[in-house]
Amino acid sequence: MFIANLLLSPSLRLVLIAGGLASMVKDYLEKESGLRSNAIAPSVAPKIPVENSRTTPALAPQNVAGRDYVPTDVTPKFLCSLVEGQTSMLAQKIVEVYIGKWMMVSGTVFNTHERTLSVGVTLDSDDGKLVYLTFENTWLEQISVLRKGNRISVVGKISEIEHPGVSMESCEISS
Prior knowledge:
Number of helices: 5
Order of helices and strands: HHEEHHEEEHEE
Radius of gyration: 19 Å
CATH class of the largest domain: Mainly Beta
Helix content: 25-40%
Structural class: alpha+beta
CATH architecture of the largest domain: Beta Barrel
Number of domains: 2
Shape: globular
Low-confidence stretches: 12-59
Number of strands: 7
Mean pLDDT: 76
């Protein structure tokens, strides 16, 4: 009876699911990108090229003005690939390591939105994924003159990652 209860316990099932998910994510990323993961956890750490495992990926400036940046090889397309085909709850667990970190993204303006307390820009990033950018109202003047198709580079804090795109807050235009 004890063994049956142990096998049916939600805690054990969660541990087994998490372990299986970590293995699946690792295998998927290795297959799709030809890179070898240096982590087993579903948080998916930066990749090291197989052909030269002594090199490490370039890192964005760390703790610039107290900001913790993701490595430069983490892109909207990479982040969206982590959640593709996952349930929302499982996807949140997979990408939680990236939420709240800063990232630079470049692309073309798709649309702009004025909100009550903020200004929004929908960006078609260089890697083909949509990025939803939220700026403080102090950026209203600069955002209001942007036209569809204008190229911009933005630094922002990752707030949400879903299959169709990435949402970022506290954004600033960097060029």
